[in-house]
Write a structure and sequence with these properties.
There is one protein chain. This protein is mainly α. The protein folds into two domains: 104 residues, Endonuclease Iii, domain 2; 124 residues, Orthogonal Bundle (Endonuclease III, domain 1), CATH 1.10.340. Helix content is 61%, strand content 0%. It contains 14 helices and no strands. Helix 10 crosses helix 12.
Length: 255
């Protein structure tokens, strides 16, 4: 056994644990797991569109839980036509009460601006973003046109739309996965990077590491990314040993 686990081995082990619901991977708390049941595909896509754009500078699970409570109280809220009918004060209060964003005014601005653009370009239906695209790269470019959708949240929305609706994009492996602080920290703990700082270089390096490892392991990065988020947010590993225990790899056999 090599003295260093490879990114490819790590991907294989992590995806296996995720698919089998091993340990922390039994917790179904990815954003895809909060998509409301008994809704149309359009309504599910709208839920993802509005929730994911606020998945920054906040605790993701609390955001998803708040969004679930919001549609219980206001079943038709996640619709551009409905959102644009609210007064500024009403929309701001709803965002604060249910979604609890760290920057409420920015959340309010995103909802109004993105609702208008969604209506203008995609008939108010986020599914049109992927349905009108021939490739995953094209779909991602369209997502990034919306306010607040950057390298992390943009790729995350694409991931969720593909996870839920399974469009036939042949180039999905060419799109780099979203990377957050959990991904960078785990890569550092495993020795794949030199530090855990959230610099542009580190973020890009980790994206490439995970993307190449998924291709070598012949695993879809979308599945791996869902598993990795659970590992970081639910497992909260602080050492290499913590990481390997969560993915079922005995550190004594690795070293």
């Amino acid at each position: 056994m090599n003295d260093q686990i490879t990114p490819e081995d790590f991907v294989k082990a992590t995806v296996k644990c995720f698919k089998n619901g091993f340990g922390i991977f039994a917790n179904k708390v990815n954003v895809e797991d909060f998509v409301p049941k008994n809704k149309t595909d359009r309504e599910k896509a709208l839920f993802l569109f509005y929730v994911v754009q606020l998945d920054y500078a906040t605790k993701s699970q609390k955001l998803y839980e708040g969004a679930t409570k919001l549609i219980e109280d206001m079943p038709n809220f996640f619709s551009p036509n409905i959102i644009l009918k609210f007064t500024s004060e009403e929309l701001l209060n709803i965002c604060v009460k249910y979604l609890k964003p760290r920057y409420p005014n920015e959340a309010y601005s995103r909802y109004r601006i993105n609702s208008k653009l969604l209506l203008e370009k995609y008939k108010g239906n986020p599914l049109e973003i992927i349905n009108s695209s021939k490739t995953a790269k094209e779909a991602l470019r369209k997502v990034l046109e919306f306010r607040g959708y950057g390298n992390k949240t943009g790729n995350l929305l694409l991931r969720t739309l593909i996870s839920v609706f399974n469009p036939a994009f042949e180039d999905i492996q060419e799109v780099l996965p979203p990377v957050d602080i959990h991904d960078v920290r785990i890569a550092y703990l495993l020795g794949f990077t030199e530090n855990k700082e959230m610099t542009d270089k580190n973020i890009n390096d980790v994206k490439i590491i995970w993307n190449e490892a998924c291709q070598k392991a012949r695993e879809n990065w979308i599945t791996f990314d869902r598993a990795l988020w659970l590992l970081g947010s639910q497992g909260q590993p602080k050492t290499k040993d913590d990481v390997l225990k969560h993915v079922g790899i005995n550190i004594e056999k690795v070293l």
